Amino acid sequence: MADAPRHVFLVDGSGFIFRAFHGLPPMTRPDGTPVNAVYGFTTMLMKLLDDTDADHVAVIFDAARKSFRNNIYPAYKAHRPPAPEELVPQFPLIREAVRAFNVPSVEMDGFEADDLIATYTAQAVAAGARVTIVSSDKDLMQLVGDGVTMLDTLKNRTIGVAEVAEKFGVAPDRVVDVQALCGDSADNVPGVPGIGIKTAAQLIAEYGDLDTLLARAGEIKQPKRRETLLENADAARMSRELVRLKTDVPGVEPLSGFAKRRADPAELAAFLAAQGFKSLMARLGVKAHAPQQPPDAAPVPETPPPVERVTQDYELVTSADALARWIEAATAAGIVALDTETTGLDPLSAELVGVSLAVAPGRACYIPVKHTTGEAQGSLLLGDAGAPKAPDILPRAHTLAALAPLLADRSVLKVGHNIKYDLQVLAQAGLSVAPIDDTMLLSYVQDGGSHGHGLDELAQLHCGHTNIPFSAVCGSGKNMITFDRVPLDKALAYAAEDADITLRLHGFLKARLLAERMVTVYETLERPLVPVVVAMEAAGIKVDGAVLAGLSSEFGGRIDLLEAEIQDLAGTAFNVGSPQQLGKVLFEDMALPGGKKTKTGQWGTGADVLEELAAQGHVLPARVLDWRQLSKLKSTYTDALQAQVNPRTGRVHTSYALAVTTTGRLSSSDPNLQNIPIRTEEGRKIRTAFVATPGHTLLSADYSQIELRLVAHVAGIKGLIEAFHHGDDIHAITASQVFGVPVEGIDPGLRRRAKAINFGIIYGISAFGLANQLGISNGEAKTYIEAYFARYPEIRTFMETTKEEARAKGFVVTPFGRKVWTPGIKDKNGALRAFAERAAINGPIQGGAADIIKRAMIRLPGELAAAGLTARMLLQVHDELVFEVPEGEIDATARLVKQVMEQAASLSVPLVVETGTGPSWALAH
After folding, report:
1. Which residues are in the 5'-3' exonuclease domain (predicted)?
2. Residues contacting residue 566 through CB under 8 Å, at least 6 positions apart
3. Which of 562, 564, 597, 559 is nearest to 580 (CA)?
4. Is residue 445 scored above 80 in pLDDT?
5. In this structure, which of 76, 603, 608, 640 has its CB flanked by the most CB atoms within 10 Å?
């Protein structure tokens, strides 16, 4: 049959919705309706439709909270909270989005989306089609098998039989049995108390299936396990019915109705315009008369109309003469845009595949360095033995040697987009690059959080141009190839276009700097920071694998002991990680006081509840807190960090994102070294694994109370300014002045409350928030805040003035000129508006702190070199810098670092830096 499906894409719509909602900050469309989930869902759907080769596509939604499973077990999903208030109006808009893209959608009362996906999967497999389920939901993993895979779009990971077995310890056809045993606290599936996934998998592997296990449960040697299985056999069988997906939902529309079809441009444009998604309209190349921006919307920088179409004149450089001609053209122009293509995303391990250059709009080239594919037809060239061989391209050594003088020529400006990556890749190839400009940072400095700063989005926004997607060149998912295997004609079109668009963007964005008074922020903060961060990332920090392994083993052993102790204290086996089961143990079985049920009828077991019970002397909740903390530390840090050590260097090399945060802070990832907990003894132990190389010591330099100092400075708080100049205990001074008591011998409790107010003010804390933090009444908290404002009236003036500035401009400005955008500052939703107001108050403070440490980071490498010191800056963790210092240079380096950091800015209060040294990060800080 001509229209028989070959590849069916089934999208878990509900999963997409919640991922989009929680992954994006609040956004509103022109009429004030929240649309962050709509925007995220729309962009994900666009990418899916663009990337997939499927001929049949459908989005599957949940119709209602109740399903046939509630007839089996009324408490099924009963404890799930209602959808967030800001998400509810977005559900119908998301369904409109699906219709606008002309994609079929399905939902059915009485059945969950997972059941419909299971039914359509069965139909597709029966028709001989391949199925991709777009979801990471573990409940759908039971469907994986021959011809059926899952796609986790967040991690760009295909989930097949091996991945399911890795997660559940069994093949997909036995996942239901494992889930029946371990239950699911998220869906309120009871399972068998005390049995987790690992134990369940062992039992199913040993006995074959759930029915056999339950029939032979009396043979199990472990007394507790045997008894709990015998007692809960019916619960296990019922749980299996709850987790088993229906593959025969009656009355579903036929699979043939999912045939992929084009969207109507007019309908799609009308939908996007109604939501105010101008950047998506530009990306898709659709036009419509969008509604007027309301007066309460944050102003978006003016963008020019799409430029006239530029003729693309791209050349593949495979001869020495051609390469020399392009280098000469770049030198004569005095400016060249460049981009690198590589075999991967990690700049320390990726191989350089090629370099593209652009010297004028539309005029660019691609210089292949490492390719195994042939000419324009894309066929592989085969050697005598039938193995792929490199096409006729210049030798790598010749290309790099020819490019080196151009890249180092101080008279030629090199422009890149996220040029940090290109600098790292080229450095691995032995090439240095200077001077530089970065179109990503030019955009970030001027437009901040008003839109994203990826090359594709900026090309649409400012050039009216749609870039060739990476997937069109390299494929996606399991079919993705590395760039060195891309045919040269495709490589030329893709790579040269990136350099071309980068050069075009540079012309527009650089011209805006002066008009928008952002030259100083770009030239003194962002651009000079790039090579500093490149050096930090390349240096990395040494990690002692043995220490990490020892901590993982220690934490694992303590977790097991704690779990056993908790179950002994409870007098029953239960899943310690299940809030529902824990709540039952605490407030029903043990009848502990103070239990409160949530709106869904489930006992609250959050950290605040457990901490209150522990403070009353109850042992079990205290042990659960210990168990939670250790479990988090083990999985997130000691286990994960071991896998992130670079085998070549023996160090971890975090990546710092330069254009992500709204306040200008750097953001660490892969691994994130800015979130290692240090407030607990166990958390601090993790930093013991970060060590100096032999003959060196780690130096930590940390700004003391920098955000409080900035509050005093920007608000002009005379009392705090004076206290900082005298070097007084700022919290004791605040307690004295607010509560009217002598500063000498101040009561520690009053000082603690003053400290909470001091730091809370930075984040616009409310009386309710302060009351929760201090364990006092709302009235008492309000009295404290009013007393604080009465003593420091300048702070209230600053807060109100800052909010007014945000409402008028859509952003606030740090003391150093950085714009911090505040979307939602006039939102009709009170909660969203209050969140934006707190962000506005905090923006000049946290953004100012980010600017100050950046100023110090930029100065330090030169100052160290001028002093003949060889210390290397390794990490930036918010207000702290970490260095690796030769043992003979410790004192001199510490003095110089402290001096440079304290002189990084001139404020009305002194900046104070505290330093520490030691063989490990833990001992240095």
Report:
1. 6-261
2. 576, 620, 623, 624, 627
3. 597
4. yes
5. 76
Residue 255: pLDDT over 60: yes
| CA pair distance 469, 51, nearest whole angstrom | 9
- What's the DSSP call for residue 888? G
Distances (CA, A) of 678 to 562, 611, 633, 685, 687: 22, 19, 11, 8, 8
* DSSP assigned state of 384: T
Q: Is the peptide bond before 844 cis (omega within 30 degrees of 0)?
A: no
Residue the block writes with tokens 């704690």: 562
Closest to 545 in 3D by CA, of 678, 638, 673? 638
**Which pLDDT belongs to residue 924?**
93
Q: How far is CA 620 from the centre of its chain?
A: 35
Residues 871 and 890: their CA atoms lie apart, in Å, by 9
Q: How far apart are CA 393 and CA 587, in angstroms?
A: 73
> Residue 350 is encoded by which pair of tokens?
């990726």
CA dihedral 619, 622, 627, 633 (to 10 degrees): -150
Q: How far is it, in rounded angstroms, from Cα 688 to Cα 692?
A: 10
Q: What is the 3-state secondary structure (H, E, C) of 807-856?
A: HHHCEEECCCCCEEECCCCCCCCHHHHHHHHHHHHHHHHHHHHHHHHHHH
- Cis, bond preceding 528 (omega within 30 deg of 0): no
- How far is residue 370 from each of residues 376, 486, 488, measured CA to CA in Å? 16, 10, 11
Q: Which of 41-55, 451-465, 633-647, 906-920 holds the top average pLDDT?
A: 906-920
Condensed to tens digits (0 to 9), the pLDDT of residues 309-338 reads 567 899 999 999 999 999 999 999 999 999
Spatial distance between the Cα atoms of 226 and 192, rounded to a whole number of angstroms: 11
Q: Report the amino acid identity of residue 770.
A: L
Residue 884 in contact with residue 869, Cβ under 8 Å?
Answer: no
The closest alpha carbon to 151, from 43, 5, 9, 344, belongs to: 9
| Closest by CA position to 665, among listed 877, 418, 815, 421 | 877
> What's the rounded Cα separation, in Å, for the pair 486 and 135?
29
- Using alpha carbons, list the distances in angstroms from residue 793 to 105, 106, 779, 797, 800: 57, 58, 20, 7, 11
Return the residue matching tokens 């899916």: 48
Amino acid code (one letter) for 871:
A
E strands present in 472-522: none
DSSP for 727-752, please give it. Answer: T--HHHHHHHHHHT--STT--HHHHH
List Cα–Cα distances, 233 to 209, 211, 620, 805, 860, in angstroms.
Answer: 13, 9, 27, 64, 66
pLDDT at 386 over 70: no
For the entire predicted model, the pTM comes to 0.66
- The pLDDT assigned to 375 comes to 41
Spatial distance between the Cα atoms of 629 and 921, rounded to a whole number of angstroms: 21
DSSP 3-state of 313: strand
Tens-digit pLDDT profile for residues 862-893? 999 999 999 999 999 989 999 999 999 999 99
**Burial status of residue 547 (CB atoms within 10 A of its CB: 0-12, 13-18, 19 or more):** middle
Contact 724, 915 (CB under 8 A): no
Instruction: Tell me the mean pLDDT in the region 593-598.
Output: 80
Residues 606, 597: Cα–Cα separation, whole Å:
11
Which of 33-42, 84-93, 762-771, 841-850 has the lowest average pLDDT?
762-771
- If one compares 602 and 121, the residue with the highest pLDDT of the two is 121
Helix (H, G, I), strand (E, B) or coil at 875: strand
What is the chain's alpha carbon radius of gyration, rounded to the nearest angstrom? 30
Q: What is the pLDDT of residues 406-419, one digit of tens each?
A: 999 999 999 999 99
The predicted model gives 181-205 an average pLDDT of: 86
Q: Which are the contacts of 681, defined by CB distance < 8 A and separation ≥ 6?
A: none
Domains of the chain: 7-258 (3.40.50.1010), 313-527 (3.30.420.10), 542-652 (1.20.1060.10), 708-843 (1.10.150.20)
Residues 743/873, Cβ–Cβ less than 8 Å: no
Question: How long is the chain?
Answer: 925
